[in-house]
Amino acid sequence: MSTLTKQTLSHLDWLEAEAIHILREVAGQCANPVLLFSGGKDSICLLRLAEKAFRPGRFPFPLMHIDTGHNYPEVTEFRDRRAAELGERLIVRSVEDSMARGTVVLKHPGESRNKHQSVTLLEAIEEFSFDACIGGARRDEEKARAKERIMSFRDEFGQWDPKNQRPELWNLYNARSHKGENIRAFPISNWTELDVWQYIQREQLELPSIYFAHVRPVVRKNGLLQPVTPLTPAKAEDKVEDVLVRFRTVGDITCTAPVESDADTVDKILLETATTTITERGATRMDDQTSEASMEQRKKEGYF
Prior knowledge:
2 domains, single chain, alpha/beta, Rossmann fold, Sulfate adenylyltransferase subunit 2
C-alpha cells in the first residue's frame, strides 16, 4: 500500500494560486483584457503572477499605464525597462493627452492630476475596446476598495455601483459583460501589504529604488512628508530637511509622500511593515486625507 504525503502549502502559496486562477478566468471569459502596470510594487507582483499563469506563452493581454505626467522618474524608467525585458506590449496613455483634448480641465495649474486618471482610463478603454482591466488594488488599502468584488462590474459609463455587484460564492467569478461595459479584476484583492512584501522577498522581485531608504529633501506638512521637487517646490515659509525616507506606495508626485525609514533591504521593510500601526495609504497619500466618501465617489466615476 502506497502512502500519500500531503504537501503543506504556505499562505503565500494559497494567495498565489487564487490570483493565478483569477488571471486565467479573466483570460478565459474576456475577449480583450488589459493589465494595468505602473511600475509599482503591486503591479510588479501581478507581472510575476501573469508569468506563472501563462508562460512560456505570451500574456493574453497587453500592459497599460495611465500616466499623470507627474510620476517619479525612477518608477517610469523601471516600468519601461521591465516591460521590455518581458517582451510584452506596453500601452501608455497620459492625462496630459486628455488635457490637450479638453476632456480634463484642471482647476489650477498646481492641482493634482491623480483623480483625473479616471477620464484618461475610460478614454483608453474606449479607444482599445477593452472589456476588462486587471489591477493591483487590495482590500486592505482603503475602506472603499474593501467594498469591491474581485470581479468588479462597471456599466457602459464606466461607473461603479457598490450596491449592484455580482455575488462571488465558492470562488466562482463572472467576468462576462455586454459591449461597452467593463470588468475591473483584482487578483491580489485578498492580499495585505505584508503579503506583497513577503511575495517580493520569496520571488526575489526587482523594484524601483524609490521603495528603499534614501535621503530626500522634504517639508513636514499635516503630519506627512511632502517631497521637495520642481513640481512641489518649498514655499518661503517652509523648512526643508534632508531626511532618510522610503516610499510605501508610489503615484503622482503631487500626492504621494514618503515615510521616515532606514529600511534599505526587503528584510528590513518586512520587519517595518509587520510592526507599523499606520495604513499604507493613510501614511503616504495626500489626496486620501479627506474621507472614505471621496475615494468611493472617485471610484463611482471610473477610478481604478
